Amino acid sequence: MTARTGKASLVPFSIGIVGAGQFAGQFAKLFQLHPGVGDIYATDLIPERAEKLVAAQGLAGTVGSFDEMLATGVDAIALFTQRWTHGPLAVRALRAGKHVYSAVPMAVSEEETAAIIEAVKETGLTYMMGETSHYNPATVYAREKVAGNDFGRLFYAEGDYVHDMDLGFYDAYRYSGGEKWKETASYPPLLYPTHSIGGVLGAWRTHATSVSAVGVTDDRGDGVFDREISQFGNDFSNATALFEVSGGGSFRTNEFRRVGYPSHIRESRFRFFGTEGSFEQLATVSFWQDKTGVQDVSEHLQAVPTLSADDPSLDNVAPALRDAFISGTAPVHDRSRLPREFAHAPNGHEGSHHFLVDDFVTAVNEGSLPSVNAWVSARYTLPGIVAHESARRDGERLTVPDFGEAPG
Ligand SMILES: NC(=O)c1ccc[n+]([C@@H]2O[C@H](COP(=O)([O-])OP(=O)(O)OC[C@H]3O[C@@H](n4cnc5c(N)ncnc54)[C@H](O)[C@@H]3O)[C@@H](O)[C@H]2O)c1
Fold it and tell me: How far is the CA of 232 from the centre of ligand 1 (A)?
């Protein structure tokens, strides 16, 4: 494939960014560079944030509110609001005739998930969740190994999202939650399940059918993860879930927020075991193994930084979180499909941002199904929602509902 060039062959569509906080800037930049995108507007409950984003990146302008954004002629909405808010906003945007790109997670309940799928089915519009693990180098590598049948029969996998609160999250939640930040900093780890589940299911073609999960009650006593204060009634700061999958086998995910681990080096890690081959990853190393030996594939999966941590575009991002936003692609990534405008553009989360933006823009431009479409998003999100309920019920094994694969 060759890199696409220029705007001539495309009809660019307009985007309204909703939520101009810490994450939106990175994506605004990429949407703006993509030849398939035209005007970009921004809105935020805190108007100065939208104004700052528009000024910093030379976007088309600000809009007063989400409702006003829906009333404009923008073709698509990109949601970068707080993690528990996406479901209802996505449905309202779809019902208003807008394509939707949503930051993770898709939703926080089965009902919200079902409503998005229903709205996508009825409107025929594009919905995509921006799950960065879908393009995590380990997941891309395992996806290739699955395609080549190198694992034999896959029967077990592990996905970890291990990010300690002390490594940037206190700052991020203060920025995000204002005076009442402790109420939302307790967001349940298993309701943010897509980085671990999406990295597993992004490679393994299956879905979760049941789950049993265990939560660890926090004991720091600083008012975060305190049930009395928590908006979510949550006091788990670490959680582990074991999922049974369709076709036989299982995968285990860890969602850790109190953990002695250097998440700035690598925050999502994966392992896959098949009857013929296996793959194991730690913070700095990755190995392919079969019955004859071990191959060190660490370099092949190592994303190379393309931005300096003091780049002005990272102003809103807590210093301890910036490593995630400066990584470029790894050798395992095939950049040939990306527009040439992305060649020197900022990237992030182990090189995934470029691919997610291109997937969404291409799907809207071509009327095709994006990689992490509504049905895939549900399979990446809903198992975590059910796992959180299982943890609340002392590990009771619960059935995970499935909305199936995207039609047609
Ligand atoms: N690896 C990843 O995929 C990754 C990494 C970081 C963040 N995220 C996701 O990105 C999203 C945004 O994260 P963030 O750190 O930028 O959050 P943030 O709290 O910094 O920013 C959210 C912004 O949305 C605004 N907002 C909320 N509701 C709104 C509404 N109805 N209308 C207009 N504005 C509204 C808030 O005022 C705030 O400025 C989250 O869902 C998070 O989960 C994903």
Answer: 17
Pocket mutation for ligand 1, best pick of 18, 26, 44, 353 (most atoms within 8 Å of C-beta): 44
What is the atom index within ligand 1 of the atom nearest the CA of 177? 19
Please give the distance, rounded to the nearest whole angstrom, from the Cα atom of residue 82 to the centre of ligand 1: 4
Does the reported pTM lie above 0.90?
yes
| Residue 368 belongs to a domain | no
Residues with Cβ within 8 Å of 222's Cβ and at least 6 positions away in sequence, in order, are none
For tokens 């940037």, name the residue.
Answer: 168
Which residue lies with its CA nearest to atom 37 of ligand 1? 45
In a domain, 196, yes or no: yes
Q: What is the pLDDT of residues 300-318, one digit of tens each?
A: 999 988 777 787 777 777 7
Q: Which two tokens stand for residue 49?
A: 């944030």
**Does a structural domain hold residue 100?**
no
For residue 9, how far is its CA from the centre of ligand 1 (angstroms)? 33
pLDDT, tens digit, for every residue of 317-364?
A: 777 777 777 778 999 999 999 999 999 898 999 999 999 999 999 999
Domain count along the chain: 1
Residue 267 domain-assigned (yes or no): yes
Q: Give CA–CA dist 317/293, Å, rounded.
A: 42
Of the candidates 71, 72, 92, 73, the residue with the CA atom closest to the CA atom of residue 81: 92
- Domain with 307 in it: what CATH number? 3.30.360.10
According to the 3-state scheme, what is the secondary structure of 178-202? HHHHHHHHCCCHHHCCHHHHHHHHC
Range of the domain at 168: 133-332+374-399
d(CA 29, ligand 1 centre) in Å:
16
Ligand 1 environment, Cβ below 6 A: 18-24, 43-46, 49, 66, 80-83, 85, 103-104, 130, 132, 172, 175-176, 349
DSSP type of residue 92: H
